[in-house]
Amino acid sequence: MSLIMPEPNKKTLSRRLEIVAALRAIVPGEGVIDKPAELTPYESDGLTAYRQPPMVVVLPETTEQVAAIMKYCQRENVKIVPRGSGTSLSGGALPLADAVLLGMSKLNRILNVDYEDRLVVAQPGVTNLAITRAVEAEGFYYAPDPSSQIACSIGGNVAENSGGVHCLKYGLTTNNVLGVELVTMAGEVLRIGSRALDSAGLDLLGVIVGSEGLLGVVTEVTVRILPKPETARALLIGFPAVEAAGRCVADVIAAGIIPAGMEMMDRQAIHAAEAFVNVGYPLDVEALLIVELDGPAAECDHLIDEVAAIATKSQATTLRMSRNEDERLAFWAGRKAAFPAVGRLSPDYFCMDGTIPRRRLPEVLQKMALLSRKYGLEVANVFHAGDGNLHPLILYDGNKPGQLDQAEAFGSDILRLCVEVGGVLTGEHGVGVEKRDLMPVMFSPVDLAHQQRLKCAFDPASLLNPGKVFPTLHRCAELGRMHVHQGKTLFPELPRF
Ligand SMILES: Cc1cc2nc3c(=O)[nH]c(=O)nc-3n(C[C@H](O)[C@H](O)[C@H](O)COP(=O)(O)OP(=O)(O)OC[C@H]3O[C@@H](n4cnc5c(N)ncnc54)[C@H](O)[C@@H]3O)c2cc1C
Fold first, then answer.
1. Which of 45, 83, 126, 465 is the pocket-test mutation for ligand 1 (most atoms within 8 Å of CB)?
2. pLDDT tens, residue by residue, 138-180
3. Strand 177-183 relative to strand 217-224: parallel, antiparallel, unpaired?
4. pTM above 0.90, yes or no
5. Residue 494 has pLDDT above 70, yes or no
6. For 27-172, where are the alpha helices, taking DSSP H only?
7. Which atom of ligand 1 is nearest to the CA of 154?
8. Ligand 1 pocket check for 93: Cβ under 6 Å
9. CB burial string 116-137: b at 16+ within 10 A, e below
10. What is the atom index within ligand 1 of the atom nearest the CA of 219?
């Protein structure tokens, strides 16, 4: 792989057997995996272009075991990579050759459901969908809904600040988490946030959500749950040009309407999805919008007419409104299957994730088409149009020499473009290793140094998930005296893990 990761510590590697034995003393039974063949399933996460078997996998079952493992690793200078379900698309859970992979999947119990306070307390290995499943009989649900919700863990959602279709109206993970239990690299157990809507002191919860396993390991999560909306209706709207669809999105928001979801697909994605699920998507359009409204029936009916009127003004050529639940689900079926559908078009694809101001959408898509020609690689676009979060899927064949490098370079150019038009490097998939080296495009050396100081406050020896998020992770002692002259660091070509 072309990715530069921290050099493995030879001393740690030479002590492997001793480290495995120490972990077995903390987690007895089958909770420690060290046979090479059994390590293979852990060698990558959802970003499968990069692979590295871990030194050893440990699967604790209690917070006490997590704390003991971390305390031991800190004392013995051993690195740790936390892992939930391994669905990260940015390589956040990519193992290191000299690190313990700390799998959280056995901490998988829902600890408390409180309908009066409208919250659920869950262990980090509980899947996102399992939270909704636990409360749906009483008419409640957990709002953030990543497409991976059947598999991804709530601990991973907290670490990535994950989003989904319904986050436009109901917020990302950060807006739905009330508190966490966190184990630091030193093995201390902290409680951050609470069961209440606000907490005193610094907003450490805001710091932990989205920290990508760099600051601590989440061992318990308290999330809020919402009553299921009385009704939901969707519109399927086709446009002859992407510009018209982009304008419609901006006009809906400008009219003060916040749909429960507003998703867009381009021609390539529409055709792939329709061929996969056959739900009657129009094939003569350049862009397709799915807009969902939810709430009391009267409000839904009123808003759906308003959105339809805006779409007509924006030159929509196809306009269908769902009349029942089956039709609504059919509108969504293609969008939900868009990733596997695009996966049938080529042996490999890279799913990029960047965010732009909504009004710049047409311009960004035009430039992306030029980049597609430059690199000779196709791109299909599926995105959360309402919040400007793009998911370009770059199609490539990893078996053809040079295509992975081309796809990586194409992806980097797309993310640079997002920043150039006033957007950001990531919408919901995190930085991980995928966008790590692009962080200086977005942040100045001073910005990055301050973020790293925060990392050092939690993990001074940089043992927790090193090589992720920060392009050049200085030793914490070094940070105090780093001299940056006119934005230039000494020897910028050297990775400083
Ligand atoms: C098909 C597909 C569709 C997807 N759709 C979406 C989508 O719509 N929206 C979206 O936001 N994401 C999406 N994702 C990305 C991914 O599912 C999310 O990032 C998810 O939150 C990762 O959860 P996980 O349990 O798999 O975490 P992992 O992949 O195991 O880990 C992700 C990161 O979290 C850290 N981590 C995991 N558990 C803990 C813990 N307990 N404490 C501290 N750090 C921890 C890891 O170190 C790593 O940095 C998709 C992925 C796939 C494969």
1. 83
2. 999 999 999 899 999 999 999 999 999 889 999 999 999 999 9
3. antiparallel
4. yes
5. no
6. 36-39, 63-75, 128-135, 154-160, 167-170
7. 25
8. yes
9. eeebbbbbbbbbbbbbbebbee
10. 41
